[in-house]
Amino acid sequence: MTTRELFNNIMHYGSYDRMPVIHWGGWPETNRRWTEEGYDWDCDALQFFGADFYWSPAYCYLSVFPSFDMGLYPAFEKDVLEETDEFTVYRDETGVIQKAWKKESCIPHFMDFTLKSAKEWDLYKARLQPDPARIPDDLDKRIANVQSSGNPIIIGTGSLMGWIRNWMGVENMSYLACEDPDCYADMVNTIADLVCWQLDKIISRMSTPPDMGFGWEDICGKTGPLVSPTIFRMCVAPGYEKIRAKLESYRVKLYCIDSDGDVEPLIKDWLDAGVNVQFPIEIGTWDPDPMKLRQKYGKELRIIGGINKLELEKGPAAIDAEIQRRLPLMKDGGYIPMPDHLITPGTSLDNYRYYMKQMRALRFN
Length: 365
Prior knowledge:
Number of strands: 14
Distance between the termini: 15 Å
Strand content: 15-25%
Strand order of the largest sheet: 7-8-11-12-13-14
Structural class: alpha/beta
Largest sheet: 6 strands, parallel
Order of helices and strands: HEHHEHEEEEHHEHHHEEEHEHEHHEHEH
CATH topology of the largest domain: TIM Barrel
Helix content: 40-55%
Low-confidence stretches: 57-64
Oligomer: single chain
Mean pLDDT: 93
Number of domains: 2
């Protein structure tokens, strides 16, 4: 069967004899290490690693997601405010002033924001409206490439909390959600409407519907979510419900959210709002147990991820043990294993290739 058929059989509890082998890229420091260890970046990476398809922003938005520009339109003009050999301070396309380091991989330091309160919301709301200019001229070609790939077709569904967090900062967003929940709800609803417009524009051109909607949030940290379950249910859940209803109208049954950190306090509310796939379930951050999540929430909860990336640094014995930990969930269905984030610089090329080889060797009745 094709990788797409395999993906759907697993996620819908059908029959399957193996797991899809997904290649996730590494941090720049990982890539530099692998170059020193002999990796040729001109090679076919999928063939080299024996993988079925990529799962990383550098690739999946080109070959798996038939999406288009869903950001602020028009974007703010980028403006460099200070630059040294070590860092650049600039106002980015979302109106955020940030400090980005040049020689190391790290999250930029957000210094100031254009969107700080409800007073500035109209400036942003006007940039989050449907516009034919958002649609790329080659959209039909992108769709054709995706549909002929044999890979799962995954369509982007934006971000109902993470984008707002990025535009405002955690502190400003937190005050707004508590002091003006109607404005916060309007932000979420505006983004949800734009997402639904995109889904109509893309899926109506497809010969078969996508297999899964995929949204990004990164709205949880090591100690839990940055938006309380109460605020979520009041202000955010209606946006998810709207997108879920649109996906259902096109027979798309899977709706996935990408959020790092401790997502468990929101899983039940996400499920109630129609989000039935969680990714990546970060093991290394807060040591969750994907099997216990399945037992708690049932088979409506699907999971992608759940392989502790830090174990890949330790060599074959640790890698084998980590894969064995996940075998019961693989056999249960509704679960596709892959590392729980980008591959770390502590992972040698040999160790990563060993992990991919062991994943390829898995077989199920």
